[in-house]
Amino acid sequence: MIKAVSGAIIVTLLAIALILGFMKYQDYKNSLENILAADLYDVLTSYDDFLENYEEQPALSLQYIQNSKVDLEKIQIFSEDLDHDIGYQELGPITEDFLTIMHTIEVEFTNNRELSTNRFDDLNTMLNELKIIVYNNYYNDKDNHHGGQAKLQLNQVEDINEFRDKLDNYITDNKLSISQ
Fold it and tell me: For residues 139 and 120, what is the distance between their CA atoms, to the nearest angstrom?
């Protein structure tokens, strides 16, 4: 009888430990999802702000270019946080490439005091494209970006890799670098 009671007590204690462990895991998972959702929101809001500022800008100036560079640096910080959350290090390096393009725009403007808007248009087009890729890959429900649940793990990264390759080719084909 004592063996039966002690066996029941052990089984009960194990069940309680498993339940508590599962509850702790759920809390941890929910905390990670909240952090990821906040970082994802910061990245996407920063993309939107950058794109809206460009659309509202009547003419490009050195001040606007420098402000845009600061905006991209902010996006890079948010992107690196998101990369860290997911464990997939691509958005930070992509933003670094965007900064290379912005640096080239700044150097060309400083040297020539005029600016072809082509690079800026290219940058904004690519940022729009990246925004769509982020929506499609970082949310569980691709159609519900506002209030949709952020993914803790990316299952399909092909379009992120393709975008990265496209961006790398753009930089290589245009001979862009920070040292210009």
Answer: 28
